[in-house]
Amino acid sequence: MDLVFRARRVVTPQGEIACDVGVVDGRVVAVEARIDSPNVVHLADDEVLLPGLVDTHVHVNDPGRSEWEGFGTATRAAAAGGVTTIIDMPLNSIPPTVGAEALEIKREAAADVSVDVGFWGGIVPGNLADLEPLHEAGVFGFKCFLLHSGVDEFPAVTTDELEAALRQLATLDALTIVHAEDAHTVRESEPDYAGFLASRPREAENKAISDVVALTRKTGARTHILHLSSSDALSILEAAKRESLPITAETCPHYLTFSAEEIRDGQTEFKCCPPIREAENREALWQGLRDGVVDLVVSDHSPSTVELKQGDFATAWGGISSLQLGLPAVWTGARERGFQLTDVVRWMATHPARQAGLESKGAVEVGKDADLVVFAPDETFVVDREKLHHRNPVTPYHGRALHGVVRQTWLRGRETGQAQGKLLRRGEA
Ligand SMILES: [Zn+2]
Q1: Ligand 1 centroid to 119 CA: how many Å?
Q2: How many angstroms separate the CA atoms of 384 and 283, rounded?
Q3: What is the Å distance from ligand 1's center to 59 Cα?
Q4: How far is the CA of 299 from the centre of ligand 1 (A)?
Q5: 41 CA distance to ligand 1 middle (Å)
Q6: 318 alpha carbon to ligand 1 midpoint, in Å?
Q7: Would the pTM count as exceeding 0.90?
Q8: Which Pfam families did the record assign (predicted)?
Q9: Which of 55, 114, 170, 323 has its CB 3.0 to 4.6 Å from that of 301, i.e. a possible disulfide?
Q10: Distance, CA 156 to ligand 1 centroid (Å)?
């Protein structure tokens, strides 16, 4: 063995156990009661060994808007937050990842990363011919918007255009991930939070999700609903799953943590699309996780510069930064509601890895990469935005007390800081 981790608590697919985890060449080769080795990492009594998290929803914005975030800062933040794999969204960078050439430009921008990085491609009007080359070049699937994306170089598709893309992607068995808000239901926002919330009502999500369910049924393509906020749509998704349609859904730490009632006018660090809704809606999303209707929890880390994030709710950039904070934020809410670390690992590591087809990620198990997190679940800390590795120190979590401290993150058997991340292609990781 190159290395053995010894812990009283290890979260494995069989539940939480006391054991040793043996590593050779960056892979887990044994999970046993006792492994003899001169190189043992002993976890303290208050520490738990988790698999590295897989965050499939990260906007790195590099190249083109690297003043918003960059591969160096984003992947250092990921490592500090216990995230060992990210998959980068195809928009907000320039060029957007809507063709194989743009993917190569991305990969060059990501030459120096602290965790493993994969890429989503994009579906925009007129790029049908680019989808298969992008798929062959190794993107993990394809993202599209059903309303204005926030940046002009990544336009939305109509449902007819989405249907044409799904027909083609079904033949490749590729996954399509959808920003599901209906363009005709969303209205112009007012400057205050109540006006912003009313401009992007639950009905906009419900309508768009119903449309995606109908297209999934019609085309047979695999689809996924990004950043679910409207709890009304849980029943639509539950029915689709009962029908065995190949559809999954995610929600995000901010929808599980905050509520509309606590957001004051001018607190634009809380602005995201779809919006954070009422406390009652938040509790229904937790129930959706409990029932298995919501499959995964990922950050939707979508930063901008401090300047763009200021102003009022009509004009400020819509996006929340939380890549480094997702694990403690979700664990804090989960433990209050009686969930276990095994639940959090399922939502934030195992299911995202499975959804993206990352076979060597997402669990502490023989054959997987030795991506491991030493986590102290009972220790608390107060979030200080100045101490985050994100490029811009804006986050609604600032000042909030959270449970759970990431003490060490290991990537393929090396502690991050000394480890170098890899650029991943679909089917190779
Ligand atoms: Zn996003």
Answers
A1: 13
A2: 26
A3: 6
A4: 8
A5: 37
A6: 10
A7: yes
A8: Amidohydro_1
A9: 323
A10: 14
Q: Give the residues across from 54 on adjacent strands.
A: 85
Contact 47, 17 (CB under 8 A): no
Distance from residue 272's CA to the centre of ligand 1 (Å): 9
CATH architecture of 54-359: Alpha-Beta Barrel (3.20)
Domain ranges in the chain are: 54-359
C-alpha 414 to ligand 1 mean position (Å): 30
Task: Give ion ligand 1 contacts, CB < 5 A.
Answer: 300, 302
- DSSP state letters, 358-419: -TTSSSS-TTSB--EEEEEEEEEEE--GGGS-SSS---TTTT-EEEEEEEEEEETTEEBTTB
**What are the tens digits of pLDDT across the range 105-156?**
999 999 999 999 999 999 999 999 999 999 999 999 999 999 999 899 999 9
Question: Distance between CA 246 and CA 253 in Å, rounded?
Answer: 24
188-203: per-residue pLDDT in tens?
999 999 999 999 999 9
CA separation, residue 324 to residues 77, 78, 300, 369, 405 (Å) = 5, 5, 12, 21, 11
- Give residue 290 CA to ligand 1 midpoint distance, Å: 23
Mean pLDDT of 345-352: 98
